[in-house]
């Protein structure tokens, strides 16, 4: 109604202006809806483990004369507490990458160090599933950015590759330099032989809390925030993240970031250009 009233008043000014105004209102409403959804999602995600903890603590009290039951319930409490901790930590990470300018303390960050850190972070999970992790290609490259954020981004991609793959498969990480008009970029590709992602889901997996299979995500400690964090980190570094996938065959997530030397050259050139 509001949008229509506005468009009726400005109609004589031309249809392009009308279109812009209507688009503006629609965009503002969309942003508001996304914000509301996010708050609702966070509340729901927090409620689930808190509710489970509350029920389990009652169960522990009722079972006080059955040590085996107490142990079982306590074990499940630990799982829920871990889930809650992961969620809160990822919410903090997400808010950091959304609010902090990563380039404020940017530095050259070696890709081989990021790769080693990411592999290290997943070593336990990968070992349990006998998944082989291998770094290939030219990892002796450096990107320009915030070390902590870059480590979180690559770590999330490798963690997902392990989580969404069956046992005894392979996760590969490869890096290469690609020439781009604005300066060289580095591409770090994480390839798995996992369950894959449909074309329809590919469009949505980078949204906060979107999961293809919520039960599977939760079972592996997933929060549904990982790829949203990756996307933010990539964008705020002047890069991007893309996905290629074939259902049942596997996926490749590619993180594209400014090369350290190229980014530094650009920064040095800036005063001259002004
Ligand atoms: P989660 O914590 O659930 O892993 P993410 O934001 O990291 O959240 O990923 C969102 C969803 O995208 C996952 O729940 C999963 O359905 C899908 N996904 C992410 N990475 C992969 C992958 N390598 N292979 C298959 N599906 C994936």
From TrEMBL:
Start-end of Basic and acidic residues biased regions: 262-273
Any GO BP: cellular response to phosphate starvation
E.C. no: 2.7.13.3
Subcellular location: Cell membrane
Domain Histidine kinase: 41-261
Swiss-Prot/TrEMBL catalytic activity: ATP + protein L-histidine = ADP + protein N-phospho-L-histidine
Domain of life per record: Bacteria
Keywords, in A-Z order: ATP-binding, Cell membrane, Kinase, Membrane, Nucleotide-binding, Phosphoprotein, Transferase, Transmembrane, Transmembrane helix, Two-component regulatory system
EC class: transferase
GO cellular component: plasma membrane
GO molecular function, one term: ATP binding
Membrane topology of this protein: Multi-pass membrane protein
Protein name: Sensor-like histidine kinase SenX3
Species name: Streptomyces resistomycificus
């Amino acid at each position: 109604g509001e949008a229509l009233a506005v468009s009726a008043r400005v109609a004589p000014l031309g249809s392009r202006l009308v279109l812009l105004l209507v688009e503006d209102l629609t965009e503002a409403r969309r942003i508001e809806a996304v914000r509301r959804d996010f708050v609702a999602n966070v509340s729901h995600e927090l409620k689930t483990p808190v509710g489970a903890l509350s029920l389990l603590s009652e169960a522990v009290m009722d079972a006080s004369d059955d040590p085996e039951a107490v142990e079982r319930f306590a074990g499940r409490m630990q799982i829920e507490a871990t889930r809650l901790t992961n969620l809160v930590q990822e919410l903090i990470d997400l808010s950091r990458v959304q609010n902090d300018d990563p380039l404020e303390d940017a530095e050259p960050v070696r890709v081989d160090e990021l790769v080693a850190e990411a592999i290290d972070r997943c070593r336990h999970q990968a070992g349990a599933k006998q998944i082989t992790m291998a770094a290939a290609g030219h990892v002796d490259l450096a990107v320009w950015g915030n070390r902590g954020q870059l480590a979180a981004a690559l770590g999330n991609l490798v963690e997902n590759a392990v989580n969404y793959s069956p046992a005894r498969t392979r996760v590969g990480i490869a890096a290469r330099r690609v020439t781009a008009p604005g300066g060289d970029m580095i591409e770090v590709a994480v390839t798995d032989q996992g369950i894959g992602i449909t074309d329809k889901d590919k469009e949505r997996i980078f949204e906060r809390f979107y999961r293809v299979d919520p039960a599977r995500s939760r079972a592996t400690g997933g929060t549904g925030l990982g790829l949203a964090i990756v996307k933010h980190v990539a964008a705020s570094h002047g890069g991007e993240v893309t996905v290629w996938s074939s259902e049942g065959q596997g996926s490749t997530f590619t993180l594209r970031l400014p090369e350290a030397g190229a980014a530094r050259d650009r920064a040095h050139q800036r005063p001259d250009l002004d």
